[in-house]
Specification:
The protein is mostly beta strands and 312 residues long. The chain has three domains: 87 residues, Cadherins (Immunoglobulin-like); 102 residues, Cadherins (Immunoglobulin-like), CATH 2.60.40; 70 residues, no CATH class. Helix content is 11%, strand content 37%. The chain contains three helices and 21 strands. The longest helix is centred in the N-terminal third of the chain and has 24 residues. It starts with a helix and ends with a strand.
């Protein structure tokens, strides 16, 4: 007898537990109830909701045989049940939404009809919530920078890189530099850095025009949902007069016959400006020379001192 009661008790507990789960899983969607002259509560929907999504249920009461009509390209009203005093409709999405082009609200004009009076107009409001679905876009491209080779380390050399994200909910963009994988020079990669928040480009190491005259980096902008956009920034290094001239073809050796006439051309030396971009002309002068024969860079003041020709 005791065992029978225990068994029945267990069966009852299992039965009610199962029944509760079924009811909970079939809970209806929230109902926007229309009670004239009040308008229904607004419907809130994400912009990426798929077509045929059931947005809400509308229950209309008032008069005999109430009915609803609507004219909207985005939602439709589907009658699901009715009787003498009320009718229920499914509000379904029939066209894709886009917060960035449509804004935050869709107004659905509706009309309620019944057997007691002809028409009662009202507006159903559908509020669209933004979803992070847009890719950032760079503005004012291309990005090109000229930087003097004597620019100070830590100096901001460019601050015009800018990207925009159409998603209202995402304004936290981050910027990065990427370098062509074929470039293995670590100095090249680290010469310039970009601030991940402001996109300001800063000189990170000293420059030398004679060593490297051009840098190219890929700028990556990323939003919080990992949508990426890329563009290039081109950096040209400008030469500054900071290098001394240098002789080419050294060392110079002169062999002179003892009976050579005064003014005989003995040798032509050659020097070039160490600055390649802004090269200046080079002039020559003999300083502190020890000679067994008098020599000069100028023959009777007729020779240009920039020729590099030495006379005996």
């Amino acid at each position: 007898m005791d065992l029978f009661k225990m068994t029945n008790s267990v069966l009852v507990i299992i039965f009610f537990s199962t029944l509760y789960e079924l009811v909970a899983s079939q809970a209806p969607l929230p109902i926007n109830k229309i009670e004239w002259p009040h308008e229904p509560n607004p419907i809130v929907v994400k912009e990426d909701s798929p077509i045929r999504t059931n947005l809400a249920k509308l229950s209309v009461t008032g008069g005999k045989h109430p009915r609803l009509n609507s004219s909207s390209e985005y939602v439709s009203l589907i009658l699901t049940s009715e009787n003498l005093t009320y009718a229920t409709y499914d509000v379904n999405l029939i066209k894709a939404l886009d917060y960035e082009t449509m804004g935050s609200t869709v107004f659905v004009p509706c009309t309620e009809r019944n057997d007691d009076y002809s028409k009662i107009p009202f507006t159903l409001r559908v509020y669209i919530t933004d979803v992070n679905d847009e890719t950032p876009v760079f503005l004012n491209r291309p990005y090109s920078i000229n930087v003097a080779e004597n620019a100070m380390v830590g100096h901001v050399v460019y601050d015009l890189i800018k990207a925009n994200d159409a998603d209202f909910s995402d304004r936290q963009l981050k910027y990065y530099f990427e370098v062509d994988p074929k470039i293995t020079d670590t100095d090249y990669k680290s010469k310039f850095v970009i601030n991940e928040s402001t996109a300001q480009v800063t000189l990170n190491e000293t420059l030398d025009y004679e060593t490297a005259r051009f840098y190219q980096y890929t700028v990556v902008v990323r939003d919080s949902n990992k949508h990426n956009a890329t563009t290039d920034v081109f950096i040209t290094i400008e030469d500054v007069q900071d290098e001394p001239p240098y002789f080419t073809g050294t060392p110079y050796l002169i062999s002179v016959q003892e009976n050579s006439k005064v003014g005989t051309s003995l040798l032509v030396v050659k020097a070039e400006d160490g600055d390649r971009g802004l090269s200046n002309s080079v002039t020559y002068k003999i300083l502190n020379g020890k000679w067994t024969l008098p020599c000069s860079l100028i023959n009777n003041d007729l020779e240009d001192p920039s020729s590099g020709r030495i006379y005996g």
